């Protein structure tokens, strides 16, 4: 443990030192230029490393992934072209279509539930005394500090199943057994995708605190004059929140929703640790892992990554446009 800690510390120190040295050298180079060129080129010297990093670590891998999605699974990089076979094979598979359906359920349920619960907690906590509000928000925000693998381990103790007659470690089955019932294999209950919704609860538990913090700040930023004016005009508390507060924090709500949505589309850890996609819980992030590492099918894995990128890009474009519209309105 000590060795890993020291390695991480040295790595961070070396990275920061190298970045400082790089920018010091670039600054010195810009100072050697004639003054009229220095003023024009110095900003480019500072942003050039960032652009270079984006090109190497984002653009190049994205282009290569797109190319690999049209190649066979043999070897990596594969040499033989297969056209759209990887895409058609995946989309023709009942298992993959079920994976897309499960992913769609996550997209449909989790972001909306996170926003609603986060807003509800923010509004209710805002009514508490300062100490009580801080305590409640701290407790709800704490799961954000846990990794998804750690959260899956914690919730594994909630959903754990042992055969009848054995001591029940899982919290839910402990309650069921205490009332005289038989233990239930919760994560194997795939009727109406019940086990997938149980996994979604874990992501809600982790993200409600994030939504609460942003939405609470937005609610506190609503001018008190508008609230008082609404109350003087005869609006009750529900009308104040629905017709006055919510329209003024719409931008924050959209930001939280899209941020959680993008995170949901990339979810992998929870499903991998809890079920590995079994019992009809598979989602697209886990399917990518299974195709790449378990099936050694790099072409199909690349095709899945491309599908995911194509789904995320329009959402990111909308988010950028929404942000620019908000900035222009201020």
UniProtKB/TrEMBL annotation:
Compartments (UniProt record): Cell membrane
Membrane topology, record value: Multi-pass membrane protein
Presence of keyword Lyase: no
Any Pfam family matching the protein: BPD_transp_1
Domain ABC transmembrane type-1: 100-319
Superkingdom of the organism of origin: Bacteria
InterPro entries noted in UniProt: MetI-like, MetI-like_sf, UgpAE/MalFG_permease
Descriptive protein name: Alpha-glucoside transport system permease protein
Species of provenance: Nocardioides alpinus
